[in-house]
């Protein structure tokens, strides 16, 4: 096979599709978009890999790309990978396809043993696993079972999605700085174009959205800081006739949020709409008056960037990666100070000059985050690692 420059390759890059199993998460969205872009940039032939008792639960992003699936149960695979560093994924692929795997790209920290003949490139989205209070005991056990420190140490190269994440990796583990690169993800280009009026109205009806609302979109879990958000909304609702829409799938300890909403003085103006389909997010952002994201920890932060791409005034925490992600386009607040969050939200709702600035600058800034650029930089990292170990 040849790439666009005419170079012949007998080996392939294998991409782990396991993050695409089941309901698509942020990491799943990242995996799909990056896989598509890597195939399109045509540096080297690509194959997909997955394992589990059923192949049909995987959402193959490009049906024309060979997909090698093994029926090893996930729990057994993770167990043998942790304790025996077997099976070697590149060997499984070679046995099934006859193709040599030059590099295995893991878009998430998962069990992915490979032989010495294959290079492994690992993408790290955040280091939240180091903060156990953010997770349930079940999730903590999963983090332990992945042997994350060893997984990072044994990777030939690590790609962090932000400088904040890279800095945390290097503070935690004694790795050579040159082994950890930063490649920012892209965003779906559809966010840069407004949907039709009929689509907007369809989304408004489907989710029963109020006429004017502040929006939060993300997994409903403690690290998203939704209890403090509710405290801030109390002050906002006293000043403005506006509702709060909380969108996203339920996460760990969601019952705490439900209790806080039940006791809230403006509970009739708070709406939980649950999981939002990817196709509806563009309209949802644009129907909102302000996007609020006071998260305590993020490795990158897709939702604020997507809101800015839609030209929506955005308020984010001044912590971890979020200042890096939104640059100067969003208002930044102390996530532990509900008064600070409320004041910034009221300003975003009231100040017309700020709204016009975000409407112009937000999409222009977000346009820099293109999956084609991300794929080219990831491909550069992969090829560099292959050359270094040739």
From TrEMBL:
Residues 210-362 form the Glycosyl transferase family domain. Gene3D superfamilies: Glycogen Phosphorylase B (3.40.50.2000). CDD domains: GT4_MtfB-like (cd03809). Residues 26-190 form the Glycosyltransferase subfamily 4-like N-terminal domain. Coiled coil: none annotated. The keyword Transcription regulation does not apply. Keywords: Transferase. One of its GO terms (biological process) is lipopolysaccharide biosynthetic process. The keyword Cell membrane does not apply. It holds the Pfam family Glycos_transf_1. GO terms for molecular function: glycosyltransferase activity. This is Glycosyl transferase family 1 domain-containing protein. PANTHER family: GLYCOSYLTRANSFERASE WBBK-RELATED (PTHR46401:SF2). The lineage of its organism: Bacteria, Candidatus Uhriibacteriota. It comes from the Bacteria.
